[in-house]
């Protein structure tokens, strides 16, 4: 008896996009479009009728805005939602808001050659739908719910570094790790799987929320305490050294684990350059990117942390790291920031024999 297919409902005001999504999704044996809708009001009835496993949702639609619909949906009937967004500055800001509201992930519409562009990313679309179907739907943080409690750091060596990797569900996970950090925390370097055009908006949004400075990383800049550096979309982020200083290195080389930026690339550079002065953190995400790199960091003397299954949107990358013995600690998301400050205050791990 074959396994049940993942049922998908596509909501988009473009008939072309609805047709392309149906063609792409139905070309995979384990996926099926059970219905399409031109707007959220039509989708509401179809959700009740078909009980889909995953919803793909356009942002800009008639009759009801995609964000308004998403907010109501996640409050009344939480389910895995993939946003379908344009690759524009405005599109990236709206998409980040959708992720805050509880969307699992997003698909970027190509700006040119929509049919050829969508078909080219057919496998990526299928993978994202599969990951969404396995994810834990979550509601947005309530407006009345306080932000994570700030944590403080004792005097920490400027040599210490926090090295973070994430994928699906990572934008909100990263926010939950960075928001409590104190202004004097160690420098933070972050690779989040994200296409070009989105990372600057992501960094700017975090910078407004956090006590530390958050920015998109730039080639050659010094890596300073109290700052977080996010890999630019479609570019590998590496840790480098210039004399006594840590510096940012950017690389447009081939994708690693099919990703650019790749978490493994960042983790390996930290293992090679910082060794036991680094603390590696692997957060929610599908696939295995970062698992091998986290093990290299541990073998180089770094302390290593993986997010626990219960708090992950998708427990893919942390699971792989834990399975290969790469994680010293497996920690719930809300406890990661205080754990990192505790580890940063401790002396570096003794070099292994």
Report on the structure:
Helix 3 packs parallel to helix 4, helix 9 (263-273) packs parallel to helix 10 and helix 10 (291-299) packs across helix 11 (317-323). The chain has a seven-stranded parallel beta sheet with strand order 8-9-7-6-12-13-14, with helices on both faces. The chain has twelve helices and 14 strands. It is 36% helix and 22% strand. It is α/β, with parallel strands linked by helices and 353 residues long. The longest helix has 13 residues, at 89-101. The protein has two domains: 6-134, Response regulator (Rossmann fold); 161-345, Rossmann fold, CATH 3.40.50.180. The model is unreliable at 348-353 (pLDDT under 50). Keywords: Chemotaxis, Cytoplasm, Hydrolase, Phosphoprotein. The modification 4-aspartylphosphate is found at residue 58. It catalyses: [protein]-L-glutamate 5-O-methyl ester + H2O = L-glutamyl-[protein] + methanol + H(+); L-glutaminyl-[protein] + H2O = L-glutamyl-[protein] + NH4(+).
Number of strands: 14
- Please indicate the percent range of residues in DSSP E strands (runs of 2 or more): 15-25%
Distance between the termini: 52 Å
Kindly provide the name of the CATH class of the largest domain: Alpha Beta
């Amino acid at each position: 008896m074959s396994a049940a297919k993942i049922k998908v409902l596509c909501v988009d005001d473009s008939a072309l996009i609805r047709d392309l999504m149906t063609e792409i999704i139905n070309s995979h044996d384990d996926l099926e479009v059970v219905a399409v809708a031109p707007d959220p009001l039509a989708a509401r009835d179809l959700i009740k009728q078909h009980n889909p496993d995953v919803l793909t949702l356009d942002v800009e639609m008639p009759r009801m805005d995609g964000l308004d619909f998403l907010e109501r949906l996640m409050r009344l009937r939480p389910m895995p939602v993939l946003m379908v967004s344009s690759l524009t500055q405005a599109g990236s800001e709206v998409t980040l808001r959708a992720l805050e509201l509880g969307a699992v992930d997003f698909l970027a519409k190509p700006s040119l050659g929509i049919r050829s562009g969508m078909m080219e990313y057919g496998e990526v679309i299928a993978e994202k739908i599969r990951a969404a179907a396995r994810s834990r739907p979550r509601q947005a943080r309530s407006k009345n719910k306080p932000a994570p409690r700030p944590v403080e750091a004792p005097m920490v060596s400027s040599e210490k570094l926090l090295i973070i990797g994430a994928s699906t569900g990572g934008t909100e996970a990263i926010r939950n790790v960075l928001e409590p950090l104190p202004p004097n925390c160690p420098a933070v370097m972050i690779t989040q799987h994200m296409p070009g055009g989105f990372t600057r908006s992501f960094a700017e949004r975090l910078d407004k929320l956090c006590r530390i400075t958050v920015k998109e990383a730039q080639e050659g800049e010094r890596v300073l305490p109290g700052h977080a550096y996010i890999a630019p979309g479609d570019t590998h982020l590496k840790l480098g050294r210039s004399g006594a200083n840590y510096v940012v290195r950017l690389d447009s080389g081939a994708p690693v684990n099919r990703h650019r930026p790749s978490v493994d690339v960042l983790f390996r550079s930290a293992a090679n350059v910082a060794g036991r002065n680094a603390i590696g953190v692997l957060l929610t995400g599908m696939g295995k990117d970062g698992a091998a790199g986290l093990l290299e960091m541990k073998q180089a003397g770094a302390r290593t942390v993986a997010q626990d299954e219960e708090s992950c949107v998708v427990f893919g990358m942390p699971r792989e790291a834990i399975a290969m013995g790469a994680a010293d600690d497996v920690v719930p998301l809300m406890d990661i920031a205080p754990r990192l400050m505790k580890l940063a205050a401790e002396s570096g791990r003794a070099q292994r024999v």
